[in-house]
Structure formats: C-alpha cells, structure tokens
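So, can you check?
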Amino acid sequence: MADLERDIQEDFINIVTKDNKKEISSKYKIYQKLVYYRYEEIIKNSFLEFKKYISEKELENSIKKFLKEPCSTEFVWQIANDYRKFVKKNRLFHDRKYLYELLYFDWIEIELSMQEYKIEELKEFHYENSYKLSNSARLKKFNYDILNANIEKKEENFSIIYYDFKDDEVKYRQVNPVIFYLLRKIDKTKNIQSHLLELCFENDIEFQEAKDVLFEPLNELFHNRIFESK
C-alpha cells in the first residue's frame, strides 16, 4: 500500500510540474500554481536574507527548477533545506557564491530553532575534562563577511552559531581560529587540554600561553552550552 501511495504521489508531482502546456489540462494548471505558491511561501519565509540579494525572476526560476525534484522530507519546514541543497548542487548562483552562504545562514537558524533539547545541569569547565560539541551549536567557516552584512567581501569568518537558552533565540558569534579548530577537534577520546596541545604543536603556538588566554572564552562558551560534558 505504501508503494502504491508513493507511485500516486510521484505521478501527481510529475503532472503538476510539467512545463509542456499541451499535456496539462486546465485543472492541473491550477494544481501547478497552488504547488508553486506553497513552495514560494515556504522559501520566502525561510530565506529572509537570501531573498534580499536576488531578483523576483531569479527566485521564481529557481523554485520552478526545484519543483521538478522530489523532496526528501515530509516535514514542511525541512523543504527549505532541500531547496538550499538543490540550489548549491545545481550551481544556480555560482557567479555569486556568497548566496550559498546566505542560504546556510538563514537555514541554520531554522534548524536550531526547531530542535528539541534536553537541558542538563552545568558543571565547572576544566581543561582536564572531555567534551563534545552540543547539538544546539554549529561551527561554520564563512568565506564571505556574512556576519557583518558585508556579504560580497571575501573574508574568512570563523563562527559559532548556537541556540541561546537564556534569550530563547539563535545567535551568531565570531571566534578566533584557535577556538574554532579546537572545538572541531574535541571528542570523547581525549580531554580538551590534549586537543589544545596537539593544535598548538601543529601550528607552532606556545601551549601554556594559549591555555591561559583561552580559558575565559572557553569557560563562557561552555556556560552558553556550545559544548558539553560527555
């Protein structure tokens, strides 16, 4: 029964997304418009920054192309991520690669806001402990100055995007490369001090100095639940 329902759904999508007018009856043209308008609503409401930098015609064309691809999700809010991946995979705006980063910027706020989180009691931060990146946080190296809204300027931004439980909102924070790559390295096999030692050795950084300088920012990030105990 599930296979039959899937076949019917695929046939319907094929009908309502065809471009050949001779093959579409008037009622299916209506369905086609309804499907388009629904997807347009989802995408416009999801990608608030992205849509500022493309024309209505460009957006319309991209959505029409996207409609010809089957979605990977049954959840309406996740359709936006399918669109984001489709645009990048098909290089629709490859002359303006910063648009791909804007799509990510918009999408990740939705993803983090829609997650369900289990809040555990915080302990003290210690270098001797092992940690992992929280599921309420993401690490992202932007190649354009997205966080400062200077989007066309090529400039690396090492960023943490996280859900702030105190303010109940998603926040974006620039960090230095050492913190960024340290948080990318942490896992259950070693304590965070061992990971920092490796990173310092790989980059010819004085370990004790780095350890002293980074304690306060790491402690703050820990208490913002960007990384957590095992």
Observations:
- The beta strands are 131-133, 137-145, 150-164, 169-174, 227-229.
- The CA atoms of residues 66 and 92 lie 11 Å apart.
- The two ends are 43 Å apart (CA to CA).
